[in-house]
Every structure is written in structure tokens, then in C-alpha cells.
Amino acid sequence: MTAYVISEVQIVDESSLGRYQSLAETSLAQYGGRYLARGGTTEVVEGARPAGQRVIVAEFASLERAHEWYASPEYAEALRVREHALDRRVTFVDGL
User: Fold this and answer.
1) What's the rounded Cα separation, in Å, for the pair 61 and 45?
2) Predicted confidence (pLDDT) at residue 39 exceeds the cutoff of 90
3) Which residue of 1, 42, 73, 79 is most buried, as measured by CB atoms within 10 A?
């Protein structure tokens, strides 16, 4: 069953952001993931979202595969860079 990884991101350090994005994108592809939305224009129609917050949505073949990617050695380096680059909330969602 398809699964989605949803990240709500606040950039902290622009100079580290590009490195994080490159590492994350490469590792995501290695685990069969693909971006469906990546920091495009958002429109909040209910509730609130902090100004400047970005939303990223990635798709994986399964929730298990998304967890494999997140815990992978390939993504571990991106996570180390992320500590300085951005604050975020990450949610894994099973598809229909």
C-alpha cells in the first residue's frame, strides 16, 4: 500500500539547506521514494501555519519502505545536516 511522508519545515540555516536537500533527495530515490510536493506555494484554508513554513510530501511504495529510508545509513548523513538546517515535523501516512 502506498505511503506518504509529510514534512512541515521551518528553515533555520539557509547555508546548510542545499546540502540537506541534495542528501535527502539522493537517499529518497535509493529507497524508491519520489517527491509529490516540495516547498511550493501553500494556501492555508483552515487552522494556522507559521509564516514561511514549507510543506514537503514524498511517496513510497509502502509504509515499511518509508521507515527503511528514514532509518537508512544513506539518510543518516542528511539527518545530521538537518539538525542545523531546519526545524520540522514529519508524519508518515498510509495511503488508501
Assistant:
1) 29
2) no
3) 79
- C-alpha cell read off for 75: 539518510
State mean pLDDT over 50-73.
96
Rg (CA), the chain: 13
C-beta separation of 34 from 3 below 8 A: no
With contact defined as beta carbons under 8 Å apart, do 94 and 6 qualify? no
Per-residue burial over 63-84, b = 16 or more CB atoms within 10 Å of its CB, e = otherwise: beebeebbebeebebbeebbee
Q: Cβ contacts of residue 24 below 8 Å, gap of 6+?
A: 75, 78, 82
